[in-house]
Amino acid sequence: MENSYEKDLPWIDTHTHLHAKRFNRERGNILRWMQDTGIRNIEIPIEYDSNFLMREKLAGFENARFAAGVHPTRVSKITAKDARKQLEKLAVYPDTVAIGETGLDFHVATLDTEFVNQMEEWFEYFLDLADQVNLPVILHTREADERILEILKKKRRQFKGVIHCFQGDVELANQYMELGFHLGIGGSVTYTDRCSALRKAITDIPMERIVLETDCPYLTPESLEGYNTPKNLPLIAGMVAELKGVDIIYVKEKTAHNAKKLFGL
């Protein structure tokens, strides 16, 4: 049922990078604010080393959960010989609720065949790891949807996970949803000119398949200056509410219900 959801849930930001260097001065204040307001987050690694750094930087923040993975543009920089062994250990930690972010990014200016092959190899590895440990996968795609869909369909299974920073149209949304994915909606939904296809698609995407994310410090909502933080999650929810013609509290609690169920929070 569209209107069936758990009440009185907190805000859940399903994609943060609070371990990033630009948060070094304010991280403590932001985490205290999140603790006081009850907001929960899933912290996502970028570099291989950030899998460990983020757990150090967010130590003691009980509302945080973590993913295990490496951003597709960083896989060529992995030098640890036992990287996969270490990632597999992290994947079964009690505070690990997802695998990723992983995927393909064809926007990189220095893209070559070897790099693409590396990205695809690691992407398939993380998809299989997520399946093995029964965790959702956080999927990054940039100018690569056609190839990603080919790889996903080749696996011949239903997935659970999130298409991070979804910016596509309703046709693309339907293709991912048919494979089992939720759609991560972030600051892009506020971009009136650049993301008109996404804003139009929001009206047709079922609320059951939407989770909220900031991708902080990136993708600051339109009209705001500076880097993004979880404090802006209500702005994203407000735009979703406006586009769908529903109440913001409904968006907050429905998306939190979705995230809680998907990630086992």
TrEMBL record:
<dbReference type="InterPro" id="IPR018228">
    <property type="entry name" value="DNase_TatD-rel_CS"/>
</dbReference>
<protein>
    <submittedName>
        <fullName>TatD family hydrolase</fullName>
    </submittedName>
</protein>
<dbReference type="Pfam" id="PF01026">
    <property type="entry name" value="TatD_DNase"/>
</dbReference>
<dbReference type="InterPro" id="IPR015991">
    <property type="entry name" value="TatD/YcfH-like"/>
</dbReference>
<dbReference type="InterPro" id="IPR032466">
    <property type="entry name" value="Metal_Hydrolase"/>
</dbReference>
<dbReference type="GO" id="GO:0016787">
    <property type="term" value="F:hydrolase activity"/>
</dbReference>
<keyword id="KW-0479">Metal-binding</keyword>
<dbReference type="InterPro" id="IPR001130">
    <property type="entry name" value="TatD-like"/>
</dbReference>
<keyword id="KW-0378">Hydrolase</keyword>
